[in-house]
Amino acid sequence: MRLNQIQPKNKLKSPKRVGRGESSCGKTSGRGNKGQKSRSGFKISNRFEGGQTPLSLRLPKNRGFKSHKAKIVAVKYALLVEKFKSSDLISPASLLEKGVIKDKVKIVKILGPIEEKINFKFKNCIFTKTTQLKSNKKPSNKEE
User: Fold this and answer.
1) Binning pLDDT at 50, 70 and 90, where does residue 144 land?
2) Which residues have C-beta within 8 Å of that of residue 115, sequence separation ≥ 6?
3) Whole-angstrom distance, CA of residue 84 vs CA of residue 71
4) Cα three-residue angle 120-82-92, rounded to 5 degrees
5) How far apart are CA 11 and CA 9, in angstroms?
6) How remote is the C-alpha of 11 from its chain's centroid?
7) Per the confidence metrics, is the pTM higher than 0.70?
8) pLDDT value of position 12
C-alpha cells in the first residue's frame, strides 16, 4: 500500500453552490420570492416575533436587587461590656451566640465611646475612629 492509493472511507460532498445560475437552486437561490428574509444583509434578532410585542416586554419586571456586599453590623462598646467578660474573643459568631446580633454577618463595627477599658480580643471587627483612638487598637480583620 502506498500513500497515493489511500482513499477516504466516506467521500466528502462539496456544499451546494447557491446563487450561481439555474442549475444551482436557480433564480432566488432557495430564499423564496419576496420579503425580509430574501433580501441581502437579512438579520433578525432572536427576540423578534413578527411585529408582535416581544415576550421580554410583555412579562412583568422583577423589581429590586439583592446586594452581594458583606453586611456590616454596628455594635456599641457598652453592650459588649455588659455581655462579655474581659479577655473574651469577640467575633460575629460569638455575638450571634450571645444574642447581640440577629443574623449571620461577616464583619462587625464597634462603636464608642469607651468608658471602661477592658481587654477584649477582636476577630473580624472594625472600629470607628474614636473607638480606635481610645482603645489603641489598629483596625484589622485578624485576631489580635
Assistant:
1) very low
2) 78, 81
3) 23
4) 55
5) 7
6) 49
7) no
8) 81
Q: Are 114 and 94 spatial neighbours (Cβ–Cβ below 8 Å)? A: no
What is the helix (H) or strand (E) element at residue 45, kind and residue range? Answer: none
In angstroms, the CA 129 to CA 69 distance is 22
Element (H, E) at 126: strand 125-127
Beta-carbon contacts of 72 under 8 Å, excluding residues fewer than 6 positions away, are 105, 107, 108, 109, 126
Ramachandran angles phi, psi of 98, nearest 5°: -80, -10
DSSP state letters, 69-116: SPPEEEEEHHHHHHH--TT-EE-HHHHHHHTSSSS--SEEEEE----S
If phi over 0 gives left and psi between -120 and 50 gives alpha, with beta otherwise, what is residue 17? Answer: beta
Residues 6 or more apart whose CB falls under 8 angstroms from that of 98 comprise: 83, 84
pLDDT value at residue 71: 82
Give the cell for residue 65.
Answer: 436587587
Q: Determine the average pLDDT of the residues in 65-86.
A: 86
113: cis peptide before it, omega within 30°? yes
Map grid coordinates 434578532 to a residue: 45
